[in-house]
Amino acid sequence: MSFCFNFDVPTQSTNPDDVDDNKLRNGKKYNPSNYMEDVAKPAEPVKEAKEHLPLSDTHFLLRDAVTETVTIGTLPPLHFLNETVFERTASEREDEEKILCRTAEQRSDLISGLYEGGLKVWECTYDLLERLENAGETFGGKAVLDLGCGAGLLGILALQRGARQIHFQDYNSTVIEQLTVPNVILNCQEDDEIDSEEDKEGSGMGKVQEEDSCKEKERIRAADLSQHHSLAKCRFFSGDWSTFLAFLKKEDPLPKYNIIFTCETIYNPAYYPALHETLHELLAPGGLVYLATKSHYFGVGGGLHLFETFVEQRGIFSVDHLWDGEEGLQRHVVVLRFRKAKSL
How much is the pLDDT for 85? Predict the structure, then answer.
């Protein structure tokens, strides 16, 4: 699978990693606090949040689908729609946002304010999956948010490993409807097929019974999955983080999550305030935020150093490095948790 950071956005600023503390910027000594005040201003109108309900007939979403599977260590196989197919069949898909044709025309993986990269599975997603496999996280009984979910692989893993509630959020409604929801359904189908095979093996079926099992499998594939027990644990949202948070705040009680996943979402410093507030408001006490990211996103200006500086200034979260990759463009997996109140 190929990856491209061909971002179609104006450069926000010089990377502060390349600026020595003794050098001047705009006639003033460089200071991370001043830098964040300058860049952390949204450049585009926000996109209103909305919830997407799985259709009553979901089978057609997977018709003629081309899928890929990723298997990491002991993790269950994760299935997802092939990203190249989206590019080649853009004109055939429902897309009120017109992001499929725009990304194909401009050969860009990000168009600020229009499309935020959700159709690709970025490298850091796999980094985080590997760390979760090493940690042996089972998610049993936990509430999970896949923030900036794209293909939704992290949320799907939580679903397969016993989470009681999984919410998926992406900036684009097209990503949710055309990619995230189908991927969740695809993995729900896989669960049904595994259960069917286990039932068959346990009952000592003969040839006639095997034929009946095949018919039953086809029935499952064509069935209405909107009431599937796993799908019933999921909710799907699109929109800007600030409007997504406002949308959830209308609920009583406000949803709180034991685990929040977010991958490759800190590329643009202008989004840091909305992201930080969302994490602050939605993380449950004692909860964890798993953030997978690159050190720096060229052409956009964001990266881990800037985000850590931003988080430190706010004083809400501590940041611990779970993994640091040293090869090529450096990648990281970090964990955010609420700071402990200092004892008097």
Answer: 78
Helix axes 241-249, 272-282, angle to 10 degrees: 30
184-222 pLDDT, tens digit per residue, is 999 987 655 444 444 444 444 444 444 455 444 444 443
Q: Of 236, 239, 177, 237, which is closest to residue 45 (Cα–Cα)?
A: 239
Opening angle at CA 151, ends 145 and 157, nearest 5: 55
**Strand 110-111 to 7-8 pairing:** parallel
Name the token pair of 340. 């402990």
pLDDT in tens, 289-341: 999 999 999 888 899 999 999 999 999 999 999 999 987 779 999 999 999 86
List the Cα angle 323/258/142 in 5-degree steps.
110
CA distance 258 to 139: 9
| 39, 71, 128, 275, 309 from 306: Cα distances, Å | 11, 32, 20, 14, 5
